């Protein structure tokens, strides 16, 4: 066996050097990725941590400028959280928000899925103009529709009733959801429902048995969008509803906890946490499908 030459030795040394270099680069890349991810998580969790600290601080601790705002300088308390349930109608606000959101989501799905299917699948002459019209409706600011929707609410006799929000909110959620579902439907091959129709199903049966199950990621995106908008919308909820027992969280919390120039900061932050954390938890359960629904709708729309 021939002895290795000087060039072979140099080549092996160069290979080993390159391997160490790439290994260091790989380790550095992984460490950088984890550092960025941890920093991003801290930034995202920062508002929740801040709200939790504020909600459980004593007045003497919160309003003393010499105290560290990031620490408990005095023992924490749950009095401000309990204040929401004992001295305000927070539980009523949360319940109103929940059932209004669920009804709006249901109406949005019932109207949005057939509308998106008819535009994306039936290939009628009006399909393209209708899709464009829905998109333009989505672009109209809600404030421009304020007067006309107010007349509708008065005409139906739903003023000062939470049912007015169930009537109004779908005018915002249905166009957006239909546009999103159109894009998602275009990503699904037509062969699926055509095969079902060959097997004897009607178009409606083929849609319900083959297309709707595949639409689940898009439906999750619609549910998250519609419920989030319902829980955060302020203008219509403030204008159409005055009685405390009919208010939702977006208007009930600020009107109950901001009294003139007195701000109940701890209770305001407690309300934020009690509403935001459950929504964030449910959102994260369906995060993968939510992202899939929005990206497929955006790419194929």
Automatic annotation (TrEMBL):
Gene3D superfamilies: MetI-like (1.10.3720.10). It is a multi-pass membrane protein. It is found in: Cell membrane. The keyword Membrane applies. SUPFAM superfamilies: MetI-like (SSF161098). Its main location: membrane. It comes from the Bacteria. This is Carbohydrate ABC transporter permease. Residues 94-286 form the ABC transmembrane type-1 domain. InterPro entries: BP-dep_ABC_trans_perm (IPR050901), MetI-like (IPR000515), MetI-like_sf (IPR035906). Keywords: Cell membrane, Membrane, Transmembrane, Transmembrane helix, Transport. It holds the Pfam family BPD_transp_1. Belongs to the binding-protein-dependent transport system permease family. The chain crosses the membrane at residues 27-50, 98-120, 132-154, 166-185, 206-229, 270-291.
């Amino acid at each position: 066996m021939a002895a290795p030459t000087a060039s072979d030795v140099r080549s092996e040394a160069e290979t080993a050097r390159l391997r160490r270099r790439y290994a260091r680069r790989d380790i550095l890349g992984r460490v950088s990725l984890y550092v960025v991810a941890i920093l991003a998580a801290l930034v995202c969790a920062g508002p929740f941590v801040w709200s939790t600290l504020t909600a459980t601080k004593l007045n003497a601790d919160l309003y003393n400028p010499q105290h560290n705002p990031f620490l408990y300088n005095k023992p924490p308390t749950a009095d401000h959280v309990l204040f929401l349930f004992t001295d305000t109608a927070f539980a009523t606000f949360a319940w109103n928000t929940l059932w209004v959101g669920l009804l709006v989501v249901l109406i949005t799905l019932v109207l949005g899925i057939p509308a998106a299917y008819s535009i994306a699948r039936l290939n009628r002459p009006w399909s393209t103009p209708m899709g464009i019209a829905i998109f333009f409706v989505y672009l109209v600011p809600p404030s421009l529709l304020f007067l006309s929707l107010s007349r509708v609410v008065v005409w139906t006799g739903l003023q000062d009733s939470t049912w007015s929000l169930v009537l109004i909110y779908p005018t915002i959620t249905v166009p957006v959801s239909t546009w999103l579902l159109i894009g998602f439907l275009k990503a699904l091959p037509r062969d699926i429902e055509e095969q079902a129709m060959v097997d004897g199903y009607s178009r409606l049966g083929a849609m319900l048995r083959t297309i709707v199950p595949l639409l689940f990621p898009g439906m999750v995106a619609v549910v998250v969008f519609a419920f989030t908008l319902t829980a955060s919308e302020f203008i219509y909820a403030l204008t159409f509803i005055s009685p405390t027992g009919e208010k939702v969280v977006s208007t009930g919390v600020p009107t109950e906890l901001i009294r003139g120039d007195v701000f109940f900061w701890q209770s305001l932050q407690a309300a934020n946490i009690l509403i935001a954390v459950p929504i964030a938890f449910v959102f994260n359960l369906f995060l993968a499908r939510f992202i899939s629904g929005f990206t497929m709708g955006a790419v194929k729309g």
